[in-house]
Structure formats: C-alpha cells, structure tokens
Amino acid sequence: MSRGRGGVRYVCMDRETEFALVRRMAGGDTAAFDAIYDEYRARLYSFLARLSRRHDLAEDLLEETWLRLVEHAGRFKPGMPLGPWLYTVARNLYFSYCRSRVIEDERVAGLMGLWSGVARGPSPFEEASASELEARLERALAALAPRYREVLQLSLIEEMTPAEMAQVCGVTPETLRQRLSRARAMLARQLEIPAGREKRPLVREVAI
Amino acid sequence: MMPMDFRHRQESRMLAGLPAYEPERQCSDRIRGRCHVVLLAKRKRAEVAPIPAEARSWRHVFEFAVVAVVCAVYLSEVVRRAMALYGF
Prior knowledge:
The structure holds two protein chains of two kinds.
Chain A: E1 2-6, H1 15-26, H2 30-52, H3 55-72, H4 82-100, H5 105-112, H6 124-128, H7 132-142, H8 146-157, H9 162-169, H10 173-192
Helix pairs in contact in A: 1-2, 2-3, 2-4, 2-8, 3-4, 4-9, 7-10, 8-10, 9-10
Chain B: H1 4-16, E1 19-22, H2 25-47, H3 53-85
C-alpha cells in the first residue's frame, strides 16, 4: 500500500466523457478501461481499505469490483453515473463478505486487525500515515462502525451528493442525513479520547 | 467547549485532507491484466459475425422440434412399458 494524493481534491471527469469511455469499454476497448481504472483505482482502494481496515481484503474486493464493471459495462445507460455505481458494488461486496463470516468476537477482532490494541503493532494505515494527526484521524475513523465510516468517506473524502450517497448505501436520503450526522458526532467523540484509548469496534458493528 | 458546528467543520476539513492510498503495484497490474483479458474476449466475441435473425428463428424452431420429438418418443416408450407391465 502506498500513499497517494494527500489532501488533494479529486478532479472528476464529466459524465459525458465517462459514459463515452464506458461505452467504448463495453465494446472491449482496453484503453478506455485504463482511463477509467486510473481515475478510480486509488479512490476505490482507499474507500475499501478504510472500510475493511485490511489491505489484502481491500485488494480482493477491488479486483472483484473491477471485474463486475467490465462484465456489466454494456448495461450502462446515458446519464448513469459511474462513480456511485462503483462504490455501490464495492460496499455491497464488502458487506456480503461480512455477512458470509460467522465467527466469534475474538476471531473477528483478529481478522479485522484492530487499530487500538495495545499489544498490536501499528496498522498498515498508521505506518503509512505521515503525521500524528493523520494517524489519529485514521484510528478515530477505524473505531466507527462500517456504516458510519462509509458515509463519512463518501461525504467528506469523495464529496458525493446526499442523493448519490443514499443510492450507494441503499437508504433513503433522510436516513442518510441522520446517519451522517450521527457519524460526525461519533467521530468528534472519538477524536476527543486521548490517543491509545480509542473505542474498540464491537463485533455486531462489523455486520450492517 | 467548542460549538458543535465548528468542530464538525474542522473534522470535515481534516478528513477531506486524508491521503488516497494506492494498491500494491503487483495487485494493480494483476487487476488491469485480468480486466484486459475479459475485455479482449468480449471484443473477440463481438467481432464474430452474428447469425442473421431469420436463421436464428429457424434454428430455434428446429431445436424445439427435435426436443419435442425426443420427448414424445421417450414418453410413449415409458407408457408402453408400463402398460406391458400391468398386462395390457
């Protein structure tokens, strides 16, 4: 895992260009695929890695997401936004993975590679974080349940509109608004906790 | 104590400033390679001349007729044997 653009806003391609690329890709154009892949690769990977907190799992889910795109590219209609579609597939794959795991609390804790364990070494993200502030923020984000983590990421990092976020998360805009507000409050609380004493995620939070 | 809105704005800015992470080069190349293989296979399939619609419909009719005949033969044989078993 390597660091990408820190704090730089993503410059998204316009919807028409995006759709043209998807159409070309549906016809088997690998150059069109490369253009889309380069645009979304790091963004999707960051989203999945922060959501799952495991970069090996994030890589597997990333691969599956892209394979789904190349298989279903022919079904895209004009005006259908590619970004939310990709994030929807990615998050659904992650939650399907979570649902498929029927394991005990400690096993889950071990698998998810919790951030705040005293006996554990630093997580891959902490190691990759350049500053203490970033590491602290990553820890606070990781301590939230996945459904709160995802809305924070979609809203603040990906800058999606509430409608797009609701579409990705499969909830109504009102539920989304409440979830986002709760997530922000929870993040604020996490950031107030002294370093090393952040809340450990509960097993039930792993599921939706 | 800071007002909640201000605190949220601050956290939002901080989160927005988090870096994007790249997957390992090897993984990234593997994904690209697998997708290229799928796309090239798609293109190859598309390049194969499609069967004309008329021929396609005749083929369906023919297939259906063959399956129907085979089923009818099989069923009649089953009925014949069942009747023989009961002495008819």
